[in-house]
Design goal:
The chain is about 30% helix and about 20% strand. By secondary structure, the protein is α/β, with parallel strands linked by helices. The chain has one domain: Vaccinia Virus protein VP39 (Rossmann fold), CATH 3.40.50.150.
Length: about 350
């Protein structure tokens, strides 16, 4: 059964040359782990703080700059930023090595008329080819690391580096998202020249099972470039850490970190909060499903704020309801947050 999800409506985002679609066709309710989570909870239930951070950063991106989505899976973040910010001149590149998952990402791009480019390759510290180990648990856990998850199958995939891709394409990354299932150090090591030259904002998943020494070394290099390390967590503002102190905070409820090329401003935190409020309004009650073979109704993805936009099936959608949900969500996240680890 096809599934469309509501996209967040931010009052400041629809800038020239026009507003953005109100919904995104993600094709299926159950084909992948990401689609199943979207079916259960909408965008509100899928890493809402990470979404808010990426949307806030992209909102401040200069025209002609790029977003790199490394470990894109079905390309949800690429589709989100392309739909919301693509008309402002943001170039979006999704890197995904798993053939079946990359194919879904291409279809999502095409059926929604989006302009992001899907690069079917892994990203690491050196170009070439590598064995991608297919997780027995879920396709979202596929990794170049053979020990990350139990795997009964693998596939040979092409590998690029961020430095090589950036030089070849002449891109200027403003935001890089990295979610590569414990291979983060290799991705960052292969992009140090790009990071030093373009100073992108980097949203990076850091897992407790990532190689601590390799990760510490590459993060120390970023710190030497003037980067700050911030856990993406519900409580704002986010304090800065360094390569010697970050490890005790890996493994909290929020696994994603912001590697920031300059101090975080009050305006940045304000944008994150505003996007979070908008995202938490996009819960499962705003999803739209139709029987297989049946098209979505007219106006299902009409731009936000236009007369043709289809109302959400059951969501309150108003700013008051969204603010109540964000307060409830923030309180729940703080209650669920485990104590900081003290081991290194």
């Amino acid at each position: 059964m096809p599934l469309a999800i509501k996209l967040p409506a931010h009052p400041e985002a629809p800038a020239a040359p026009g507003p953005y679609p109100s919904a995104l066709n993600v094709l299926s309710r159950k084909e992948t782990a990401v689609q199943r989570q979207l079916r259960r909870a909408g965008l509100a239930g899928y890493e809402p703080l990470t979404q808010a951070t990426l949307l806030a950063l992209a909102q401040q991106a200069p025209a002609g700059s790029a977003f790199y989505d490394v470990g894109a899976h079905i390309g949800l973040y690429s589709a989100l930023l392309s739909a919301v910010h693509g008309n402002r001149g943001l170039d979006v590149f999704a890197f995904e090595p798993t053939p079946a998952t990359a194919a879904i990402g291409r279809t999502i791009r095409d059926v929604n008329g989006l302009g992001f480019e899907l690069v079917e390759a892994a990203v690491s510290s050196a170009p070439g080819t590598a064995e991608l180990f297919l997780s027995d648990k879920a396709e979202s856990s596929n990794s170049l690391n053979p020990g990350h998850r139990r795997s009964s199958a693998s596939v040979r995939v092409p590998v690029v580096t961020l430095d090589g891709f950036t030089a070849e394409r002449g891109a200027a990354p403003h935001v890089i998202k990295v979610d590569v299932e414990t291979y983060e150090a290799d991705v960052l090591r292969g992009g140090l020249a790009t990071i030093r030259r373009h100073r992108p904002w980097i949203v990076c998943e850091l897992l407790p099972s990532s190689a601590p020494e390799a990760l510490r070394d590459v993060l120390a290099t970023l710190v030497s470039y003037g980067y700050g390390l911030h856990v993406i967590e519900p409580q704002l503002p986010w304090p800065g850490l360094d390569a010697d102190t970050y490890r005790a905070h890996v493994g909290h409820h929020c696994r994603d970190w912001l590697l920031a090329p300059r101090p975080l401003s009050k305006e940045f935190h304000r944008l994150v909060r505003q996007w979070l409020i908008a995202i938490l309004a996009c819960d499962e009650t705003t999803n739209l499903t139709v029987p297989g073979g049946t098209p979505f109704p007219d106006g299902w993805n009409a731009p936000h704020g236009t007369a043709g936009a289809v109302p959400s099936p059951g969501g309150s959608g108003g700013s008051g309801g969204a603010r109540r949900r964000v307060a409830s969500w923030l309180f729940g996240q703080r209650e669920a947050r485990p104590a900081a680890r003290t081991d290194s």
